[in-house]
Amino acid sequence: MLPHFDASSYELTGYVPARNYINGQWCDPTGEQVEPVINPRHGKAITEVRYAAPADIDAAVAAAKAALPAWQALPIRERAQIMYRARELMMRDLDELSWLVSHENGKLFGEAKAEVLKGIECVEFGCSLPNLAASQRLEVSRGVQCEVVYSPLGVVAGITPFNFPFMVPLWMLPQALVGGNAFILKPSEQVPLSALKLAEIFTEAGLPDGILNLVQGGKEAVEALCDHPEIDALAFVGSTRVAKLVYGRACATGKRALCLGGAKNHLIVVPDADIDVAAANIMASFTGCAGQRCMAASVLVAVGEVDHIIDEVARLSSEMAVGETLGPITTAASEARIRGYIDDAEQRGATVLVDGREQRADEGGYWVGATLLDNVSADMPAGCEEIFGPVLSIIRVDTLEEAIALENANPYGNASAVYTTNGAVAREVMGRVDAGMCGVNVGVPVPREPFGFGGWNDSKFGHGNITGWDGFRFWTRPRKITTKWALQSDANWMS
Ligand code: NAD
Asked: Domain extents for the chain?
């Protein structure tokens, strides 16, 4: 059993080393590399993680294969019972899980709790799968019946990023497990601890050994998962650069793959927008989780005379206090990258309306305060690349037509939003922006369960959404069964 993670404040709290979990046993990864797991608020290690070697992936696949027949023999309703029990255990451990997320990722406790609750919502969706997957059956001709049943794929894998250590694995696990697969999860090496708890909760909920395995590590472990001939499908969530590599590599070995990448989300604001609604939502979108969300606002496209709204966003931004209303940046490298974008934009002529570079909290750690850059152009790195920090770049245009063209010229397609009180403007933007998840007066337009999460263009490689019903379809394949038991006396040529 893992010990309780007993933090109840932001005070630095140590925890157990991250290990592999294979066939229901904790075991040490066999790779050479060992890295600290840092609490970003303090910039100090809370534990360490040793990386898995390809032999560990082989062991996980072998355990998964051996466990599969008994798991697949269970009716889907019995597999879904695990989700009901896991949900209750997650609610029981809500505070512990939230503090663990907060300590390994850095996000504020409230943000961490929201993440855990959103993960639980994904588990609740998993409970509903037996009803959604109820077989479709039709007498297609006299005496002939067709039926669709969803069969598991086999051994499958998931690779997850640093920004949602608890929720993103739960974008995958309910559908894959209830669908009858055995899973190998490779969490981010920067935040490997929440996944330990996930493995233990699912085991406590009754998941058989070998059905959920955990391997730690980075690139080498991911490549071994992509290359393994006995892994049938793989989902990835992370940056576009790696999503593209992983998609190509997994598909090259014949796997089914769905790889979600990065983003550059545009919020379009027009003069008739409600000032309070717009400003509050824009703030939440670009500063929530310190801007480290694939759905975070990155560009504010200011159409015409909207200075009253920009002034309000600037006022609210300057009131943000790192350590209190804005959490730390997860790694030192990310902090340096974000600062680099701000410095570069300033050198290229952007105006730093609100400067978060001087802000630091007392505990040490990695920080950037809320930063507002005005007069950015789309060809500046701050105007076209993913910054992944609490920085909002304002690009000014004269018309809605220009705003839509600017959004659509960006290669990403995760999220897009418009702030307006005019239904015709909202309808025009929602009908034309080239993004998979769109919002009207909503800064973070995440489709909640049962609606599927997934962007377009360079924000996703592969078909379909990762959550919702699409997720179940991704981790299963439909078997079409046609049945005839007797010759019909009144048979026609299709019987
Ligand atoms: P990342 O791409 O660096 O890492 C993601 C995973 O890939 C990790 O598990 C990591 O170990 C592994 N990895 C890293 N480099 C690799 C390589 N060269 N080869 C194989 N595997 C490798 O992403 P991150 O920094 O952990 O997460 C932030 C990124 O994730 C942002 O770009 C963000 O937009 C994106 N993200 C996207 C979504 C979405 O739904 N589209 C959701 C969350 C995060």
From this structure: 20-261+459-480, 265-440
Count the Cβ atoms, other than its own, within 10 Å of residue 437: 26
Model pLDDT, residue 358: 92
DSSP conformational letter for 323? T
**74 CA distance to ligand 1 centroid (A)?**
34
Instruction: Name the superfamily (CATH) of residues 20-261+459-480.
Output: Aldehyde Dehydrogenase; Chain A, domain 1 (3.40.605.10)
Give me ligand 1 centre to Cα 216, in Å. 14
Tens-digit pLDDT profile for residues 41-72: 999 999 999 999 999 999 999 999 999 999 99
Segment 6-10 long-range contacts (CB within 8 Å, at least 24 positions apart): 6/96, 7/99, 7/100, 7/102, 7/103, 8/95, 8/99, 10/41, 10/102, 10/103, 10/109, 10/363
- Burial per residue of 103-141, b for 16 or more beta-carbon CB atoms within 10 angstroms, e otherwise: bbbbbbbebbbbbbbbbbbbbebbbbbbeebeeeeeeeb
| 3 state DSSP class of 368 | coil
Which residue among 188, 260, 329 has the greatest number of ligand 1 atoms within 8 angstroms of its CB, and so is best to mutate? Answer: 188
CA 246 from centroid of its chain's CA atoms? 16
Chain segment 72-83, per-residue pLDDT in tens: 999 999 999 999
Cα dihedral 355, 361, 366, 370, rounded to 10, equals: -30
Tens of pLDDT, residues 174-220: 999 999 999 999 999 999 999 999 999 999 999 999 999 999 999 99
Q: Exposed (0-12), middle (13-18) or buried (19+): which is 81, by Cβ within 10 Å?
A: middle
294 is catalytic: yes
State whether the beta carbon of 169 lies less than 6 angstroms from ligand 1. Answer: no
Beta carbon of 245 within 6 Å of any ligand 1 atom: yes
CATH topology (fold) of 265-440: Aldehyde Dehydrogenase; Chain A, domain 2 (3.40.309)
- Mean pLDDT of all residues in the chain? 97
> From ligand 1's centre to the CA of 262, what distance in Å?
8
The answer to whether the beta carbons of residues 419 and 270 sit under 8 Å apart is yes
Secondary structure E strands in 404-475:
412-413, 415-419, 437-440, 456-457, 460-461
| Span 251-266, pLDDT tens digits | 999 999 999 999 999 9
CB 466 within 8 A of CB 258: yes
